[in-house]
Amino acid sequence: xxxxxxxxxxxxxxxxxxxxxxxxxxxxxxxxxxxxxxxxxxxxxxxxxxxxxxxxxxxxxxxxxxxxxxxxxxxxxxxxxxxxxxxxxxxxxxxxxxxxxxxxxxxxxxxxxxxxxxxxxxxxxxxxxxxxxxxxxxxxxxxxxxxxxxxxxxxxxxxxxxxxxxxxxxxxxxxxxxxxxxxxxxxxxxxxxxxxxxxxxxxxxxxxxxxxxxxxxxxxxxxxxxxxxxxxxxxxxxxxxxxxxxxxxxxxxxxxxxxxxxxxxxxxxxxxxxxxxxxxxxxxxxxxxxxxxxxxxxxxxxxxxxxxxx
Length: 310
Fold this sequence. Notes:
Helix content is 72%, strand content 0%. The model has no long low-confidence stretch (mean pLDDT 84). Helix 3 crosses helix 8 (136-162) and helix 9 packs antiparallel against helix 13 (248-260). It has one domain (44-309). The protein is built from 15 helices and no strands.
């Protein structure tokens, strides 16, 4: 080794070790440090969101129009298969708006979870080469999902205008609360699942099955009134309904439908909503934020070996 190389090695050896990223610290300070670090990299987060959106429709002739085509095709399938053929629309006025409002919000949750679960593995090259707060990868997937949701929300609003069902009522305020519920629980699940998926690759397949089950146990293609009637005919006690409503996505979808599906608010429609829906939304938001905190702490514990595992 030459003299200059030895001198350089000596200088490096004299330097103190510095931790890359935020220290774990206590439960509160560690979480706050992670939030500050993610915020300091917000420009990078914006670039990652743009990259995900561009990569999704790369070399596609229609580009971002696919974010419209897919939900519209799903709407047509459920409207004709479930509404017309199976006759679900007979008890649900303006069935198209009812279904599309549920599909729109569920699509946001599903995309956050599925994209977030794969976010660390999909960015293995970056994680191995440079340091940056790893939480921004699930957050980038959330940002990409929010963009697609915004496009579909425009379609939903346009549909209410065309069908003369414009949601001017005060219940429209339920919509932002419902979106917030989905966002916080989506971020919590994506942080947790993205970290666990690095060590246990079966998680991504379990997520696919769970989302399929979650879709059908949520009141998207059937109304909450059908659930209440079915449980009543079965002679089950009221607490079974409360268990069904313990699902935060169910509460969010019901609130979103109440915001946009004004045909369901008429006496003739006979739509049923749980009591204290606004309070339930607030409680779910608080619980969701606690879940985000817990998921980030798990993520922080597991991220140390990401580079080696992927």
